Amino acid sequence: MKFFFHIGRYFLMIKYTFTKFTKWSVLKKLIFQEIDDLIIGSIGIVAFMSFLIGGVVAIQTALAIENPLLPGNLIGFATRQSVVLEFAPTLISIIMAGKVGSFITSSIGTMRVTEQIDALEVMGINSFNYLIFPKIISLLLYPFLITLAMFLGILGGYIASVYAGFSTSFDFIQGIQLDFKVFHIIYTYIKTILFAFVLATIPSYHGFFMKGGALEVGKASNVSFVWTSSVIIIINFIVTQLLLA
Amino acid sequence: MITVNKISKSFDDVKIINDVSAVFDKGKTNLIIGQSGSGKTVLMKCLLGLLDIDNGEILYDGKKFDKDNISTISNLRKKIGMVFQGSALFDSMNVLDNIIFPLRMFSDKTDSEMISRAKEVIKRVDLKDVDSKFPSEISGGMKKRVAIARAIVLNPKYLFCDEPNSGLDPKTAIIIDKLIQEITVEYGITTVINTHDMNSVMEIGDKIIFLVEGKKIWEGTNQEILNTDDKMINDFVYSSELFKKVKLTQKKSTDLS
């Protein structure tokens, strides 16, 4: 029963987030601040992880292919498919659930513990809109991060396979272009937008409704990561089944 | 003036506020006192609409406080200032931005007008050279002053203070108490203060409401509370050695005269 209570309260929170809007001049500043914290602040880790993951995918594919009859462009093809369809959107989103999700939960949770949210409400401000709406809007730029992850993942794969001697530059590039389907990119961006919404709202929920003190803020961040990553995996499964199966 | 008529509030079938009625007068510092866990904070949160009451009614200057009427509650909340126990200053903003915040949200003033108004209240609460500092860089007493400045920047009609001098040394606590009292008279505000500090009661208690286990058991002024025969109140008021000695000295001087 408690599970349904949380689901109901989560959707009520979403509803309140889109009602009684904060003054635009204030909201605009908050949105830019969130873009800086959530998107710009994540570029480094996303670039680092994507580049190395792309490299590992290419090396592992190359090592798994022992049959000389298999075409040389297979490494490029497999790297592109893995990075574009799964590693960039899903794995990076799980990493972001740890980085951005924990940040959101702990910052809102600390505001709850130190009565800053109560202060907003006493002033007559819709704290849901003030705190959560800018996060949702800023994470609309999340596809930009995933595009960067896709590019750097493939680049990492290219460098690893070509410079380690697993593939030639020509074969790898030919592999990247092989059997390219635009729908796969659309599928990836559909997933990305859904993940962005989950990344903004589930950690906010855990921060917003937490009770207790500093220790509970840490616990809430932990629970938030577990739930956010679980929901990302579930959505990934459902969307893949609906769009690709 | 705030009128409370027979309000109750329960959590999981445990009554925290039980049939409380009271009148909080305009231009006076109205104190809600009682031991920890007596329901002071819950009562204040009910008054502010942060908690829903189970029954009874709350009237602000004769108008019913209806939490479900969004436009009414929004308008009313713009007239309310609140000083939280931990000050509740926004960590991400410096002192000046914290004070300007309500103006930015609810007024159509230009930036320079807002800064000028903020500087006015900063001066009123006797703060100096802290405009660009962040809450983590100032002392507890200064935080309370900033919180008071933020609470009065929109010229509120009602001021709520939850344990405004908790965590402060006795001297600073008295200064903060006096500041709240002066502002109450100066701005003609209805001020409601939650406290269990007897110094505050003695210094600024224009009107006192005493709560025990969620029930109002006594109401009066700071002079009346010293002379009451009610055992429960005496146990609370004279729980400290200092006040016991004050009482004893008073008794001796009365006997002598």
Defining traits:
heterodimer; A: 245 residues; mainly alpha; 10 helices; B: 257 residues; alpha/beta; Rossmann fold; four-stranded antiparallel sheet; 10 strands; 43% helix; 24% strand
Number of strands of chain A: 0
Please mark out the parts of chain A with pLDDT under 50 across 5 or more consecutive residues, or reply none: none
Distance separating the two termini of chain B = 41 Å
Strand residue percentage of chain A: under 5%
What is the total tally of β strands of chain B?
10
Question: What sequence of helices (H) and strands (E) makes up the elements of chain B?
Answer: EEEHEEHEHHHEHEHEEHHH
Low-confidence stretches of chain B: none
Roughly what is the average pLDDT of chain A, rounded to an integer? 94
Q: Return the string of H and E elements of chain A.
A: HHHHHHHHHH
Q: Report the helical percentage of chain A.
A: over 70%
* CATH superfamily (homologous) name of chain B: P-loop containing nucleotide triphosphate hydrolases
Structural class assignment of chain A: mainly alpha
Could you describe the largest sheet of chain A, including whether it forms a barrel?
none
Instruction: Report the top-level CATH class of chain B.
Output: Alpha Beta
Oligomeric state of this protein: heterodimer
How many DSSP H or I helices of chain B? Answer: 10
| CATH architectural name of chain B | 3-Layer(aba) Sandwich
